[in-house]
């Protein structure tokens, strides 16, 4: 059976919008910090850093007092950003893509949640560290419980959730 994504628009509460803004910012910060670290290691020491070393460095980052706010959001989107970065590097080294670019605050922002970071029950979707369900405009019912969701915000400030079923 193949997986299919269903995209819906949703309207977050003020609390959810704040949590999502923090999550988007933390995902971007982690991605850019680790990209800088990996780039320096490659140019200075000719060393390729894998996913496990990057994940260990993320743990070090989260323990630093000036980056303690990384613990306020779910750890799953942060780990997913490392997986996306690892895929970007793999594609670069195989000649299929350009060197990974730094993420920008403008335009499109997104965070990916795996099944351990959200809860889907009775047609309601709850994100990790959020007490209320997302106010989603369901245009059709999902055929099954989603395995992964991606929450995104476009340049116009609209929020969308893409459910991979």
From TrEMBL:
A Pfam cross-reference name: HTH_OrfB_IS605
Superkingdom of origin: Bacteria
Domain (Transposase putative helix-turn-helix): residue spans on this chain: 1-46
Name recorded for this polypeptide: Putative transposase
Organism: Pseudomonas duriflava
Upper taxonomic lineage: Bacteria, Pseudomonadati, Pseudomonadota, Gammaproteobacteria, Pseudomonadales
């Amino acid at each position: 059976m193949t997986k299919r994504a269903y995209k819906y628009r949703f309207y977050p509460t003020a609390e959810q919008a704040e949590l999502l803004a923090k999550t988007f910012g933390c995902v971007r910060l982690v991605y850019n910090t680790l990209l800088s670290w990996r780039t320096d290691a490659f140019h200075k020491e000719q060393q390729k850093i894998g996913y496990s070393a990057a994940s260990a460095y993320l743990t070090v980052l989260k323990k630093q007092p000036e980056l303690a706010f990384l613990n306020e959001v779910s750890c799953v989107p942060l780990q997913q950003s490392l997986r996306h970065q690892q895929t970007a590097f793999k594609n670069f080294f195989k000649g299929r893509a350009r060197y990974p670019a730094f993420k920008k605050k403008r335009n499109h922002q997104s965070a990916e949640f795996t099944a351990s970071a959200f809860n889907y029950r009775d047609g309601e979707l709850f994100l990790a560290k959020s007490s209320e369900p997302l106010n989603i405009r369901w245009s059709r019912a999902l055929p099954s419980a989603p395995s992964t969701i991606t929450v995104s915000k476009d340049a116009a400030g609209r929020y969308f959730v893409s459910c991979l079923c």
